[in-house]
Amino acid sequence: MAKEMLKGNNAIAEAAVRAGLEAYFGYPITPQTELLEYLSKRLVELNRVFLQAESEVAAINMVYGAACAGARVMTSSSSPGISLMQEGLSYIAGSELPVVIVDIMRGGPGLGNILPSQGDYFQVTRSAGHGDFHPIVLAPSSVQEAIDFTILAFELAEKYRHMVLLAADGQIGQMMEPAELPPMRPLMEKRPDWALTGAGDRPPNIISSIFLVAEEMENYNKMIQNKLKVIRANEQRWDEIYTEDIDLLVVGYGTAGRIALTAVEEAREEGMKVGLLRPQTLYPFPDDRISELADYVDSVLVVEMNAGQMLDDVRLAVGGQVPVSFFGRMGGVVPMPDEIYNAIKEAYTKTTAHKAA
Question: Which domain CATH number covers 322?
Fold first, then answer.
């Protein structure tokens, strides 16, 4: 299929439709509103379900209900809206429901602004609701990856009966790029065995996240932890470039990682041995590969559009083997390549000076 100019939000929406999205429930909030607007027309054209809820709280609980019935369902929002969904997300995790959530991140904390940010890293990887669980979190850096990861999100959600978050900053949602959409997939012909059907000749089925006996709740949590172990073992994803023989490793995701690549290429042109690793999954974090690279690099530089949130995961992966430095912009400020280049040059100078000593 030929590439066409697509806006990030619209591309995610159409990719979800082509992945077999049956029902969408959401509430408008910038900078993801175009996604909802697109689906309000597209799903109706296809005789599928679209409903603009009265709030994000209502939307996530509608998603919960549709998922219990076995529907392929999605919602989308932006940072404050995802915060409002936290209780519902925990219920979804506690009920093992395959749900896709899109978070087009904006500046914060608080109401903040509608500019691109990566300030939701802790929210999507650490919390996403109370309890002992993590969602799978995919982090695209382009419109094409946003399309590909939307398809992947539904596949992973159904493979593991687990929620998947697509976390993209506002720039990816708003920008236009040439990209290729996949062919339309058929809708599910039959509901999964665990879904509620309401009638029939099979035994009654119950989906719930409540376990009043402590030991039963613990056993259920152990099952979730075992599932997360499998996910961590099999779903770490990343992209890396120029990592064959380097002194300094740069780590950045999404838009920050994309801009960092330009700075890395400039640094290499000037003779600096610098490489880039761009996490594509924020959970499970690609700590296995970062740990391997830490065995032979001399230092690591983390680049983010926040105050340093992924920084914690990089430090854990490095395990104290080498120094880890940080460069970030906050509040919706998008770093320029020359700013990241200067941070690379500073970190590289310190690294080479330490080696010489």
Answer: 3.40.50.920
| Rounded Cα–Cα distance for residues 239 and 281 (Å) | 10
Q: Residue 245 CB: number of other CB atoms within 10 A? A: 9
Span 34-47, pLDDT tens digits: 999 999 999 999 99
248 backbone dihedrals φ, ψ, rounded to 5°: -125, 130
Query: Does residue 24 sit in helix, strand or coil?
Result: strand
CATH, residue 133: 3.40.50.970
Helix (H, G, I), strand (E, B) or coil at 284: coil
CB atoms within 10 A of CB 271: 8
Query: 276 with 250: CB under 8 angstroms?
Result: yes
The predicted model scores a pTM of 0.96
User: DSSP assignment of 139-155, as one string?
Assistant: --SSHHHHHHHHHHHHH
| Gap between the Cα atoms of 219 and 217, Å rounded | 5
Q: DSSP of 214-245, one letter per residue?
A: HHHHHHHHHHHHHHHHHHHHH---EEEES-SS
Q: What is the pLDDT of residues 147-171, one digit of tens each?
A: 999 999 999 999 999 999 999 999 9
